[in-house]
Amino acid sequence: MQNSEIPEISVIIPVFNAAPFLQESIESILNQSYSNFELIILNDKSTDESLEIIKKLQAKDNRIIIIDKEQNVGPANLRNEGINATKGTYIALMDADDIAAPTRFEKQIAIFKNNPEIGVCGTWFTFFGSEKNKIIKHNTNHDTIKVSFLHSCNIGNPTVMFKKEVLSDLKFDNDYVPVEDYDLWSRLLAKTNFYNIPESLLDYRQHNNNISKTKIDNVNRAVRNVKINQLQNLGIDSTDPKIDFYLNTVSFKKRLSPEEITETINASKFLLSQNEKLGYFNSEVLQKHITKNLIRTVRNAGSYNLSFFKHLKNNEKQLFQKVNLLDKIIIYFKSLAG
After folding, report:
1. Residue numbers in the chain where pLDDT is lower than 50
2. Where are the domains of the chain?
3. Which residues, including other chains, have CB under 8 Å from residue 53's CB and lie 6 or more apart?
4. Is residue 235 a contact partner of residue 257, using CB atoms and an 8 Å limit?
5. What pLDDT score was predicted for residue 4?
6. Who's near 280: CB < 8 A, 6+ residues apart?
7. Per residue in 16-40, is it b (16+ CB within 10 Å) or e — as a string?
8. How many other C-beta atoms lie within 10 A of the C-beta of residue 183?
9. Are 126 and 136 in contact (CB under 8 A)?
10. Rounded CA gap, 73 and 328, in Å?
């Protein structure tokens, strides 16, 4: 990219003490087959050699722009500042310890050019590092991605590229760290179509410093709030006394009691009727997601008794028919024992 040329893509990498992996990560971006981009690297007051590594690479490649923070502001605020500094039509996210495949940008740009309705494009990715390589294959179709978000984040944050215009006034929210990406994308789903390229175009490094492993309580609380926020699209208020049953409907929970499962099934009927009225989710995809979830919930109940078995068989026939025969037999014998 020449200095006078406006970049089509702006890439944002937040950095905090990432020295061991940083050069490999940045070079995987600089070596992209698609080259018309600026690379904004935000250093969050690192105390290791991160800044020196970035400066050394900047001396060789004028596409790198450094924003060096005097105070540590955290990843959500850092990404927001990066987004505000961008010149590109598209914004690509990247983490300081991951490795992008050389054709990642080329393939994502092609998706946008050929599908104007798509505003956010992720890719499959491969976990590597502390465990054996494992490809994470997220859903590709927008309606399915949208419903899947009720259970978990269905797009890999460092694989994301999006049209800057679709973001409008939305931004990463520091209150949701370390799942600020799950929060932002769940809100953006209402504004534009999502797509995941069904090919691994990023190596996602797993190591013991991953934030989500060290702050598990914060993660659980933030994830719960993101799910509750999405239920508001179906007219469910966060203060609703049945909120846990609505959550159980869309996000699997083990070892529920027969009473809790009955309440969850009732909650599912209300959610589905609300969606018929409001049309927020694809009704067929939502129905399929909830049914699959309820079957898992019944199979993994904390206890069983005969009245619960009879209730399922007589009052929840539609659901009970979809439980396979072997599971029905197991549930029946467990109910006798209970």
Report:
1. 1-3
2. 9-217, 235-337
3. 19, 22, 23, 26
4. no
5. 54
6. 190, 233, 234
7. bbbbebbeebbebbeebebebbbbb
8. 23
9. yes
10. 54
For residues 105 and 326, give the distance between their C-alpha atoms in angstroms, rounded to a whole number. 48
pLDDT at 2: 46
Strand partners, 216: none
Strands 193-206 and 118-129 come out as parallel
What tokens does 262 get? Answer: 């009955």
At how many degrees (to 10) do helices 243-250 and 258-278 cross? 80
Q: Which two tokens stand for residue 154?
A: 């269905």
CA distance 297 to 144: 21
Q: How much is the pLDDT for 215?
A: 75
Q: What is the DSSP string of 222-264?
A: HHHHHHHHHHGGGT--TT-TTHHHHHHHHS--SS--HHHHHHH
The radius of gyration of the chain from alpha carbons, rounded to an integer in Å, stands at 23
The answer to whether the peptide bond before residue 178 is cis (omega within 30 degrees of 0) is yes
3-state secondary structure of 14: strand
Q: Per the structure block, which two tokens stand in for 49?
A: 């050699």
SS (H, E, C) 103-127: CHHHHHHHHHHHCCCEEEEEEEEEE
Q: Which two tokens stand for residue 50?
A: 């991160």
- In angstroms, the CA 255 to CA 300 distance is 6
H or E segment to which residue 129 belongs: strand 118-129
pLDDT computed for residue 210 by the predictor? 54
CB atoms within 10 A of CB 333: 12
Residues in the chain: 338
Q: Report the CATH number of the 9-217 domain.
A: 3.90.550.10
pLDDT for the residue numbered 214 = 59
pLDDT of amino acid 173: 97
Contact assessment for residue 126 and residue 202, using Cβ atoms and an 8 Å cutoff:
yes
Contact between 146 and 186 (Cβ < 8 Å):
no
